[in-house]
Design brief:
By secondary structure, the chain is an alpha/beta fold. It has 12 helices and 8 strands. About 45% of the residues lie in helices and about 15% in strands.
Length: about 325
Amino acid sequence: MNVRAPLLGLLATSGLLGAWWRLADGPLLREARPAADDPGRFVDVDGVRTYYRVQGHGPPLVLVHGLALSHLTWRACAERLERFFTVCTLDLPGFGYSDKPPGWASACRAGAFVDRFLTTLQLDRVSLVGHSMGGAAALWLASEHPERLERLVVVDAAGIGRSGTIFRVLATPVVGELLLKMTLPVTMRLLMRDAYVHKELATSDMGAAYARFMWSPGARQALIEHSRAYDADRRALRPRIRNVTTPTLVIWTDRDPYFPLEVAHDLLGLLPAASLEVVTGAGHMPQEEQPARVSQLMLDWLTSSLTPRPRPATAASPR
């Protein structure tokens, strides 16, 4: 049996993978930078150069993104909410345009970072919205610093249910690193399609934008560290959720491929003061699939909570 050809093929493939591995950790890395006309700005938060954007007028409302995402995930919602709130979106450490230093990658640390971010911007008390991993970070902040929050909204939050398959894959040594080193625009688009019911929303432009973020120095390691910290964070967060006294709105979808609707009911059982709204026909990214619906749910709840509506007139009770 002639084994020479398969052996040579295996050696060639190994050589190509080795070369790509080295290139992906060095020459191919590029810092992601905002365009010259980008309306956002940077601020130093405890040594982390942090990108954020502020728009609108009114009470402060801070929107926190999920794992592997950025402030861009909130664009459509922010445009609707800015008529009523001063809306602030940011890129957490490890994501988007912000610095990607080691040591920040867990939902617990992300919650602590948001606290420091608010201090840096001199925002004493805000309403806070968190999606996915950002929802877990928001719950951490609410459990540790309730005085910071006026109202809380969590959208398809991570950190409550068990880690999804993709996150377990990313946490696997070598396998996760190899997968992330293959995040070209086309593969990034394919990976993100799972999060949507409406697959057409995972566009080529979106794939290119997030692939560009993923090729920033430190970005892949941040994603891996978050995935590896998930189980420990989850075990630590669950008992703390019972201490969250901030009035909370839980928004969930009926077709989340990572955290099904049962997880939302589990969260409701842990939170002392919470209500649930279900968005039908959406996956893990309702703020992108149905921004009008999600924005209206948040707006109705936040404004009705902050400014009570007059009670309807009732007939006088007979004496």
